[in-house]
UniProtKB/TrEMBL annotation:
Xref: Pfam families: 7tm_4 (PF13853)
Domain G-protein coupled receptors family 1 profile: 44-293
GO cellular component: plasma membrane
Entry's family note: Belongs to the G-protein coupled receptor 1 family.
Entry protein name: Olfactory receptor
Topology of the protein relative to the lipid bilayer: Multi-pass membrane protein
InterPro entries associated with the record: GPCR_Rhodpsn, GPCR_Rhodpsn_7TM, Olfact_rcpt, Olfactory_GPCR1
Length: 315
């Protein structure tokens, strides 16, 4: 009888993304801000990829993984920002069920892949600092390609499990989502028929894809710090550890927002605060990554100068 009651109700075929409705007076300003961030994100990350591909000095494992990360960030931002921009300048904030699930799958997959890539980049730094004599032998191009491919493949496959589970939920109303992007947690809240199996699947998959790489990064840097501290020269310690600063900054930005969003209890957190953190996680961080690597890295800056001089016909 209960199943018949659910079947008799109309199934929801679209959702309304409320976005930043409390900032209605500032929609044009928000549009311009998000547009500027999006342009900087795409230009910065695409430029990193171009530099790594074209400059022989950057044909190393560290920059190979950086190029993967930059390509991912450009893709990730393109999944999130265009819809957010459209919602800032239109009253129609509807997104179909199919579009919602597609967006959710893509950004969860890319976020998962980023977790794995950051862990691999930590492993690369571990080998370079702790096993310098074996580094070039172990971290050859074939292994780099295999690790990058595994990251992308695992990211999309693991995300398919959790997103696929959510996509099978039943939605009969309400259909208003207090977010600017299709969110896993919001979809579960809106489902008419709660599923403990779905909630458990999402929880386990989210835990695995975030905590496992994070713990791997922590362990890698524990060994790195131990190796750096064993260097007698302070200049040597500083020079060695400086190769890790950009990666540590990116990891801190990425996992810092994840921990606040999904690990720390939400008691006292307003929806606006939660959306603000989501903006940092999904919109701002992809813009900051190429900036961090450009400002802290002499090789990237030198490659950029060389590219500019070549295009100006000077070199």
């Amino acid at each position: 009888m209960e199943d018949m009651q659910w079947d008799n109700q109309t199934s929801i075929t679209s959702f309304i993304l409320l976005g930043f409705q409390n900032l209605h007076k500032f929609q044009i300003l928000l549009f311009l801000l998000f547009l500027a961030i999006y342009i900087v994100t795409i230009v910065g990350n695409v430029l990193i990829v171009i530099l790594v591909v074209t400059d022989q000095c950057l044909h190393t494992p560290m920059y190979f993984f950086l190029a993967n990360l930059s390509f991912l960030e450009a893709f990730y931002s393109s999944v999130i920002t265009p819809k957010t921009l459209a919602n800032c300048v239109t009253e129609n904030r509807t997104i179909s069920f199919g579009e919602c699930i597609t967006q959710l799958f893509l950004y969860v997959s890319l976020g998962t892949t980023e977790c794995f890539l950051l862990a691999i980049m930590a492993f690369d730094r571990y080998l370079a600092i702790c096993k310098p004599l074996l580094y070039n032998i172990i971290m050859n191009f074939k292994l780099c390609l295999q690790l990058a491919t595994l990251s992308w493949f695992s990211g999309f496959c693991l995300s398919a499990i959790s997103v696929g589970s959510v996509s099978r939920l039943y939605f009969c109303g309400p259909n208003k989502m207090d977010q600017f992007v299709c969110d896993m947690e919001e979809l579960i809240k809106l489902s008419c028929k709660k599923s403990k199996l779905t909630e458990m699947t999402v929880f386990l998959s989210s835990t695995i894809v975030t905590l496992s790489p994070f713990l791997f990064i922590i362990i890698s840097y524990a060994y790195i710090i131990s190796a750096v501290l064993s260097i007698s020269s302070s200049v040597g310690r500083q020079k060695t550890f400086s190769t890790c600063v950009s990666h540590i900054t990116v990891v801190s930005l990425y996992y810092g927002t994840i921990i606040i969003l999904y690990v720390i209890p939400k008691t006292g957190q307003t929806p606006e605060f939660h959306k603000g953190l989501s903006v940092i996680y999904t919109v701002v961080t992809p813009m900051l990554n190429p900036i961090v690597y450009s400002l802290r890295n002499k090789d990237v800056k030198q490659a950029f100068k060389k590219l500019v001089l070549i295009n100006l016909g000077v070199a």
